[in-house]
Amino acid sequence: MSVDSNTVKRVAHLARIKVSDEEAEALKGELNTILGFVEQLGEVDVEGVAPMTSVMPMAMKKRADVVNDGGKADDIVGNAPAAEDHYFQVPKVVE
Amino acid sequence: MSDLTSLTIAGIREALATKTFSALELTDAYLAAINKANDKFNAYVALTPDKARDMARASDARIAAGEAGALEGVPLGIKDLFCTRGVHSQACSHILDGFKPAYESTVTANLWADGAVMLGKLNMDEFAMGSSNETSYYGPVVNPWRSTGSNADLVPGGSSGGSAAAVAANMCAGATATDTGGSIRQPAAFTGTVGIKPTYGRCSRWGTIAFASSLDQAGPITRTVRDAAILLKSMASVDDKDTTSADVEVPDYETAIGGSVKGLKIGIPKEYRMDGMPAEIEELWQRGIGWYRDAGAEMVDISLPYTKYALPAYYIVAPAEASSNLARYDGVRYGLRVPGDDVIDMYENTRAAGFGQEVKRRVLIGTYVLSAGYYDAYYLRAQKVRTLIKKDFEDAFDAGIDAILTPATPSAAFGIAEMATASPVEMYLNDIFTVTVNMAGLPGIAVPAGLDNAGLPLALQLIGRPFDEAMLFRTGQVIEDAAGRFVPERWW
């Protein structure tokens, strides 16, 4: 499978990365090189093979259902590019 | 007193215990060495001298009180991927511009609890995506090693290039690093240092900036096998904050060093003999086989038939997980924000300006292989292949193999910008011998084993059973004893 510039732009939009037409053209070649490289997995007979879900067998840990942290609103918004009264600020999303 | 910064961690431990010098003197010696040399190497992207001196003074107080921890007073460099409270933690990406976490990663918290001293944060490939440290927002790191008779700057490998260069150039006594496809072992091999990627789940991932969560593991880069055992013991822990942290007690790895390898079965996988592999790598491998044979180990030819599919499967699994993990960098909660016409435009502008080329490539590949209609053909198939790769190793270990010996890298360090016109895949081939280990979740160690014809270090890799890092320290010491240690000639 290979991608064209339009597919690159569509995928870039899904990934929320702005790419110009020139960048999409350059990325097209790079992505097709990578996709061409991974294409060889098609040779492998994977009939009846279970996909890996956990590389080391382990039971999913569950935390105790208790409050063990909190009260850190200052810390949480401390790195925000824009915040006010413990809220993150973003451009208007609802008209 | 010889140069304090050339001591091993084991040597520091002894000297501080006998009060040959103080922890503060040692830290000051490192800070002076960094001040003198960092401009040449670009290994550190942030320095914490005041914090380092405070920590060293506290170490001296604990030593005086007879309460020294396992790493008391040992000055370490920390890869920029680990979150350190109130200190630069940006995965060497522009998108985390100005980020200073309000929390401490479990790995670094373990180190400070054992008395270690933080010198600063180390350069790396952006989000650990790279094999040469050239994708860092902060620019490339220079390898302390140079080819004989040449002044050309070489890469230190990646992604933990700052860690490897700083250890090799005596700018820290040891460093933390992380390994998703080879990012500890390949830079260790390129700089004549020792690097171990432990079993998946051995070191907590909590507070370590995520690249590919099912592959990422932290580990140390050090000057000797013993130092790696000392540092890993402190980094590793069982951690409730990471659901993939294994409930396995951390053993005292140092006791494994010096153990006999007589009668051990060392596997030699034929699939690691690649077409076009340089003769020097093959010779190094044969020399390693000879050392083990001389030490009484039994060398066994083995087959790991799915080896060639590990790298292509990795380049589906790792980008897929990365595209998901890196979705959080949206200009809202931390880091860079580039304004836009609306919120989507703001996201797209922020991520376009904040991510470098290699990160964008991988996020796009990941997004593509996970997108509707392609999931089964790419991601699901890659995860099935991963099961087969792991089974290769399980079959070998079930047949009684104690450890597997391979080359660590297909070449020695290459020049900065030398790969600039190469395709992304050519750079990915650097990890051909290391990536299988991540895909199978196993522990792997790179130990320097010789120099190539240009005088550059080369390493061998040992791969062990799950949670049998002790076997890697035991067998790794055999290489160090036979090959000796490799120290770059000082040109800086």
What features would you describe in this structure?
- The complex is a heterodimer of chains A (95) and B (492).
- Chain A contains three helices and two strands; from the N terminus they run αααββ.
- With 95 residues, chain A is mostly helical.
- Chain A has a domain at 5-42: Orthogonal Bundle (Histone, subunit A), CATH 1.10.20.60.
- Chain A has a two-stranded antiparallel ribbon with strand order 1-2.
- The longest helix of chain A is centred in the first third of the chain and has 18 residues, at 21-38.
- Chain A is flat and about 55 Å long.
- Chain B is an alpha/beta fold and 492 residues long.
- An eleven-stranded mixed sheet of chain B has the order 1-3-2-4-6-5-10-11-9-7-8, sandwiched between helices.
- The longest helix of chain B is centred in the last third of the chain and has 23 residues, at 376-398.
- Chain B starts with 8 loop residues before the first helix and ends in a 9-residue tail after the last helix.
- The mean pLDDT of chain B is 97.
- The chains are: A mainly alpha (95), B alpha/beta (492).
- Chains A and B meet through helix 1 and helix 2 of A and helix 9, helix 10, helix 11, helix 12 and helix 13 of B.
Quickly describe the structure.
The complex is a heterodimer of chains A (95) and B (492). Chain A is mainly alpha-helical and 95 residues long.
Order of H and E elements of chain A: HHHEE
Mean pLDDT of chain B: 97
The H-level CATH homologous superfamily of the domain at 5-42 in chain A, spelled out, is Glu-tRNAGln amidotransferase C subunit, N-terminal domain
CATH superfamily of the domain at 2-261 in chain B: Amidase signature (AS) domain
Number of helices of chain B: 15
